[in-house]
Amino acid sequence: MNQTSKTAQACTPAIASQPTPAGRLWTVPLPLLELALIVAWSSGFVGARFSIDYAPALLVVFWRCVVVTLVLLPFVAGQLRRASPRTLLRHTGIGVLAMAGYLGGVIQGIALGVPAGLAALFADLLPLGMALLAAAVLRQRQGWRVWAGLATGLAGVVLATQGALAWGHAPWWAYGLPLLGMLSLAVATLWQKHSQAGPTLGLLPNLWLQCCVSALAFGFAQGWQGSLWPVPNTGFGLSVLWTAGLSTLGGYGLYWLCLRRATPARVASVLYLSPALTLLWAAYLFSEPLAWSMLLGTLVSGGGVWMVVRAEREPQGGEA
Asked: Pick from 5, 14, 164, 285: CA 20 to 30 A from residue 156's CA?
């Protein structure tokens, strides 16, 4: 009974610090949140594919961040005013890395000619990249079961997406941009996880701040190349709303929420399942063909995720 009371008291500040919707999400079973994360995260690649027919990719991402910033501002203004400058500065840095760095690297690589499938595969190296950074920089060791699960999950991704992989005609250095984007998100994830010990922002203020600083970064990048004025057509509007709602509020919001309840290795490994769902999105919306290798690869990736989850329940599994 005493232990239960202590646990409840330990969880109370985390829930109380969140706005009401986030506090309710805190009670949802973690596997359900992870399932929603897979759906929302995969929507970002679909939104990017849809948007390229209507507007420059950076322009869509800029307005995506602007829309989220404007929508969330009334709900987070009070919490932002109460936060210390040090806390705001820390989360600003995390936001630049997590959103501007990750999306900028992947999108700019595709814009320079890196095939979307290959760019997505580089982005899907996130779990391994994060584990390697944690081991090399933070001196955190992973158990061999976690490494085996991460490698198995990646093998499943390669198998599921092999039909969409091809070398493009981009400059050789452009292929490094999606990798840099992946590493940027990996650093932001580890920074966010390890900053939770001190004063931190709630889920929505954190997301607002990330979108705000990313809007400035993308606005500068797009303004350097052309106009920031929105394109007056339905496709552009749908692209912005799709990516702002599903990919940003849904994808990044669920990513950070899951990260508060699980280890970085587990949360990142779950994203191994997003490429297969992305292909299903593409088949339904764009009539792209499917292959049996996608189903087999998904099963392999699912096995890798299961290995990571099971290993982290054991003492030798370690934590990222």
From this structure: 285
Integer CA distances (angstroms), 164 to 17, 50, 174, 276, 313, in order: 43, 17, 19, 11, 35
pLDDT band of residue 154 (cuts 50, 70, 90) is confident
Residue type, 264: P
- Give the C-alpha distances (Å, rounded to integers) separating 180 from 51, 70, 209, 261: 23, 29, 22, 26
In 3D, which of 277, 273, 278 has the Cα closest to residue 304? 273
Q: How confident is the model at residue 23 (pLDDT cuts 50, 70, 90)?
A: low
Residue 24, pLDDT > 70, answer no
Sign of CA dihedral 249, 251, 257, 260: negative
Per the CB < 8 A criterion, the answer to whether 125 and 215 are in contact is no
pLDDT for position 109: 83
Every domain of the chain and the residues it spans: 43-317
